[in-house]
Design brief:
single chain, 149 residues, mainly alpha, copper ion transmembrane transporter activity, copper transport, membrane, ion transport
């Protein structure tokens, strides 16, 4: 079984595909044009990755806040019929209900997209990038996650 972790890029250059955590600077992050070859590019990349992690936590918070606002608007309505079904007030059967649902779906799309992009960035296995992602997510959770619970 060949354990070689390098591949040939279309330009004929050999690029490593890391399968373990490392601190080397010769990395491609997410796109072929995002190459980390020096320490300055690594610092810039860490800030970008950390900010996107922070943004993901902000999107989670925004989605939660939108859901809370929609729920609080419905709090004045008796929630069940005599048969146990959920009552959807007539004011929520129209445009306002569906616009809230579309907004929640929009949040879900962007959260999922960002989460998968960040997972792929983490899979570079560069310790600096991985730590900056975890730090960005943690800072975002500190600012926004505490308001959810």
């Amino acid at each position: 079984m060949n354990m070689n972790s390098s591949t040939m890029s279309p330009g004929g250059m050999t690029m490593k595909m890391w399968q373990w955590y490392h601190v080397e600077l010769n990395d491609v992050i997410l796109f072929e044009g995002w190459k980390v070859r020096d320490f300055g590019t690594m610092i810039w990349s860490c800030f970008v990755v950390g900010f996107v992690g922070f943004l993901l936590e902000f999107l989670k918070y925004s989605s939660w806040m939108t859901s809370e606002r929609m729920t609080s608007d419905m709090a004045d309505v008796n929630g069940r019929t005599k048969y146990g079904g959920i009552v959807v007030p007539s004011k929520y059967r129209n445009k306002q209900f569906w616009s809230s649902h579309i907004i929640q779906s929009f949040y879900h799309f962007w959260q999922t997209l960002l989460a998968f992009i960040l997972m792929n960035i983490y899979m570079t296995f560069n310790i600096y990038i991985c730590l900056s992602l975890c730090l960005g997510l943690s800072i975002g959770h500190f600012f926004f996650g505490s308001r959810i619970h």
